[in-house]
Amino acid sequence: MAVSTTKETEAPEVPGGARHRPVIESRSIDYVPLAERHGKVWHLFPVWFAGDAHLATIATGAIGVALGGNLIWTAIAIVLGNALGTFFMAFHSTQGPQLGLPQMVQSRPQFGFVGALLVWIVALVTYIGYTAFNQVLVGSTMDHLADTPPSVSYIAYAVIGIVLAVVGYDFIHKASRWLTYLTGAGLAVFSVGIVVVAPFSADQLDLSAFTLAPFLIQLFHAAVYQLSWSIYVSDYSRYLPPTVGVRSSFWWTYLGAGFGGAWMMLVGAVAAGLFPKLGLVDAVVSAGDQLFSGFGVVLLLLSVIPLFTIGTLNFYGGSLTLLSSIDSVKRIPLTLGTRIATLVVLGVVSTALAFSANDDFLTTFGDFLIVLGYLFTPWTAVNLIDFYVVRRGRYSIREIFNPRGIYGRWNWRGLTAYGVGFVSMLPFAVIGDMEGPLAHWVKGADVTMLVGLAVSSLLYLMLCRSLDIDAERAVIASADAGLDPDHAGHQADTGHHA
């Protein structure tokens, strides 16, 4: 499978594929044949814009101000952090059209058929944790707006997310487009209005009032927040044909996630800057009311509605990851029934976690997500270096699903690079009040992402020097022969063996 770099950006509708797609998605972790590929590459923009444009993103943007930074430097940190973290996330998106596989299944060539369980378990914890986190946010918001008992919101959130995830890929894309139009319009009104009203103090806009620690902490929180999407991203591009190319799928993802994330984080920074003594929900409402009375509630609702979209993404991606994990231990039929069963399991666990949340849950969970960010940074490095530098996009789809295949059960190269990369981050780690021994060098800012990316990438490259790529490609050509018999001509043109 060679990476296609054609500039074509529109995916042709395939006879027998796009016109006759079932309402409920039937596939899960299995390969999407070329005959079923469909969609337009620009559809990636609204998926990731809507995926980022919600209340949890607002909370991330308020961190710098809460730590004592002023508004202008917090805004700069938010923009730079989003630009950095989304860069790596968007490169994962391009893997979907090239391989036709969900994101986490693609870890098997780097870590092994069983070894990939290491990152899948971390991914599952992330999916469940984020879902519970969002359930708590929705519960507290609906309690604030309509006196709805949080328990009702928790259950409703899970049920809606599971139902939408069952419908699957196409519905997620369509819903994301409508949400992008809706939230984009609301954000535009707020952004223009708040500038016109201009309620900011001179101190909040003073470029000379730079404080290093809040700036760096905000920058890297924004970057890691965007990087955390890496475990999802090609799940929602894998039905596109490889002819969309790497450049177009990268940029539509990068712009969607980058704009959605940065814009929503800036709303959080503005709300925190204007009303530093209020809680998140009250600050958002008060900031919106600066334009005119009642707009604050509208702004809050516009930030809550997309939480249901991200809930669907979490359930959908979590189901694919749970199925991948089970498949590594015991082969199971990849049916709609098994997909629904995994969704229900995820819903029950996340809802139970939300019900058990106490007053310190959001703070404690925020620290927990930092640890998960540490765990995914070396995975991102290994996965991207393998795809773009070592194997250059050439993989065997059949061997990825073969427990005794060319990728092995345990891949010592990927596991070693991952482990060493993670350990190298710990001296710089900052988790709540705990700091690694070298964190004081950077004034308590969390730069572990840069350390982990660099160490894991360089070590994996060095370890792969002994990998016989030519012999592997000969096996790939034989193993995947006839996988897409109706599109043999296309395979010959692009080198896409899947």
Summarize the structure.
It is built from 20 helices and 2 strands. The chain is an all-alpha fold and about 500 residues long. It has a two-stranded antiparallel ribbon.
Q: Describe it for me?
A:
- The chain is mainly alpha-helical and 498 residues long.
- The protein has a domain at 37-361: Hydantoin permease, CATH 1.10.4160.10.
- 64% of the residues lie in helices and 1% in strands.
- It has 20 helices and two strands.
- The protein has helices spanning 44-52, 55-61, 63-66, 71-93, 95-99, 108-111, 117-146, 150-167, 169-197, 212-227, 246-274, 280-288, 295-329, 336-355, 361-390, 397-400, 412-425, 448-463, 469-479, 488-494, and strands spanning 430-431, 434-435.
- A two-stranded antiparallel sheet has the order 1-2.
- A hairpin with a 2-residue loop joins strand 1 and strand 2 (434-435).
- The longest helix has 35 residues, at 295-329.
- The protein is globular, with a radius of gyration of 22 Å.
- The chain starts with 43 loop residues before the first helix and ends with a helix.
- The model is unreliable at 1-19 and 488-498 (pLDDT under 50).
- It comes from Streptomyces violaceusniger (strain Tu 4113).
- It is a multi-pass membrane protein.
- Belongs to the purine-cytosine permease (2.A.39) family.
